[in-house]
Specification:
Blueprint: E1 2-8, H1 13-22, E2 29-35, E3 42-46, E4 49-53, E5 56-65, H2 67-81, E6 89-95
Antiparallel strand pairs: 1-5, 1-6, 2-5, 3-4
Helix pairs in contact: 1-2
């Protein structure tokens, strides 16, 4: 099993969720996060005063999938979340050692 963690721009969530749904991915966890990479924030003007926004709002998606579906999920997120501009985000793929469904006690792929 793999855990796919994607950091994306907030306005891309609906497109990514719809594309994953069309591919049969039924569950994900979404968290509002803030951060920066090479983008390094930006300067904004508010009531005549300039200030630096260091941490930009992003969304963090966490999706657990069987090994054989991981590559397709990464492709879908990459294609759907891309705007072609700096700050589109990152995708991380890590191994899941064990998964247990709390309600039934099912383990492994059945728990997903």
């Amino acid at each position: 099993m793999k855990l796919i963690t994607a950091i994306i721009k907030p306005f891309k969530l609906d497109d990514v969720r719809d594309a994953l749904g069309d591919a049969g991915i039924t569950g994900m966890t979404v968290s509002e996060v803030k951060g920066f990479g090479r983008q390094k924030g930006h300067t904004e003007l508010y009531r005549g005063a300039e200030y630096v926004v260091d941490f930009l709002p992003k969304l963090k998606l966490e999706i657990a999938v069987p090994d054989d579906r991981a590559e397709r999920v990464v492709e879908i997120i990459r294609e759907t979340a891309a705007s072609g501009r700096i700050g589109d985000g990152k995708i991380f793929v890590t191994s899941i050692e064990r998964a247990v469904r709390i309600r039934t006690g099912e383990e492994g792929d059945q728990a997903l």
